[in-house]
Amino acid sequence: MQPKVKYSRQRLAILNELKSRCDHPTADVIYAEVRKTIPNISLGTVYRNLAFLAQNGDILKIPATMGSEHFDGNPVPHYHFKCNVCGSVSDVAIDLMPTLTEMAGKLVDGVVTGHTIMFEGKCGLCDSTCRK
Amino acid sequence: MQPKVKYSRQRLAILNELKSRCDHPTADVIYAEVRKTIPNISLGTVYRNLAFLAQNGDILKIPATMGSEHFDGNPVPHYHFKCNVCGSVSDVAIDLMPTLTEMAGKLVDGVVTGHTIMFEGKCGLCDSTCRK
DNA sequence: CCAATATTAGTTATCATTATCATTATATCA
DNA sequence: TGATATAATGATAATGATAACTAATATTGG
Questions:
Q1: Which residues, other chains included, contact B116 with Cβ-Cβ below 8 Å and sequence gap of 6+?
Q2: Mean pLDDT lowest for which of A30-34, A83-87, A88-92, B7-11?
């Protein structure tokens, strides 16, 4: 039998923080934010819980194009856009989820269970703020 | 003016190794292989040259879903499939390259310059060899 | 062949993430 | 409600991939 889960203050704070925002922060952004209410929370605890919550289906771990991992409070798979300048990640409202996985399944030797799409470019903010 | 490029023995060996194989190895696989002909080549040299060659458009750097970066001797952008069991990466012959980027461009605030798709699942080899 | 300089080998540093472990908090049940 | 079993934490050390540094070497145009 699996170990009983205990919902600690810090686990709930991390989940809550992620659910309450619509961007897709990295572990240390979450860390900085949660620290405002639980000042002595450990960075390890943040990583541990983000991994746990993703495993548990409460949140989404967004495969990073480079650098660090990003997390999404919305656990339903969807596509993302990453700004190559500031590194921010946002949602893209296109849904080809079952279609593309199916298409690939017919072409690949093996079993295709899903896919991710990461769009890239320059976000609106970085595009307008083109100093230099 | 830009510095003149010198094509060293090790740079050519790395490029050649990547061009001659149809899988998509990581830096240390390349390192192990090139070491057979240039035994004292440095791992740093492999990383440096893979970055250089990708920048130069000779090869493709495949954004890793997790763990380490993979490289592709084919510099023309295309889609990939990653086995969650053995970690191998292979090609997927679907091409939605301009279409999807365009679609996203209409939905995102900013400029979308491209995208990557990573399919995931279990490759044919790992699927048949399903011991335990 | 020589000189100018790009590139290398070897090493150390960095960064994100995991593991370790003694201590603390949580949930269960008497 | 309060004792108890154990999951979770905080602090820190360890890991793994990649980048940076530097003196020595190899490459290329003249």
A1: A65, A117, A118, A120, B62, B63, B77, B79, B80
A2: A83-87
Predicted pLDDT of residue B128: 83
d(CA B17, CA A117): 29
Query: Which residue from B94, B7, B11 is spatially nearest to B51, judged by alpha carbons?
Result: B11
Q: What are phi and psi of A80, to 5 degrees?
A: -130, 160
pLDDT tens digits, A49-65: 999 999 999 999 987 65
A20 to each of A3, A14, A57, A96, how far by Cα in Å?
28, 10, 17, 26
Rounded-to-integer distance, Cα A85 and Cα A98, Å: 31
Q: What is the pLDDT of residue A131?
A: 40
- Give the phi and the psi of residue A22 in degrees, each rounded to 5: -105, 0
What percentage of chain A has pLDDT greater than the value 90? 75
The burial of B114, by beta-carbon neighbours within 10 Å (0-12 exposed, 13-18 middle, 19 or more buried), is given as: middle
A107 with B94: Cβ contact below 8 A: yes
B77 at interface of A, judged by CB pairs closer than 8 A = no
- The verdict on a CB contact (< 8 Å) between A117 and B100 is yes
Q: Read off the amino acid at residue A90.
A: S
Which nucleotide's C1' atom has the smallest distance to the CA of B52?
Answer: C7
pTM of the model: 0.86
Q: Which of A37, A32, A43 is nearest to A13 (CA)?
A: A37
Residue with tokens 């510099």: B75
Residue B51 at interface with chain A, using a CB cutoff of 8 Å: no
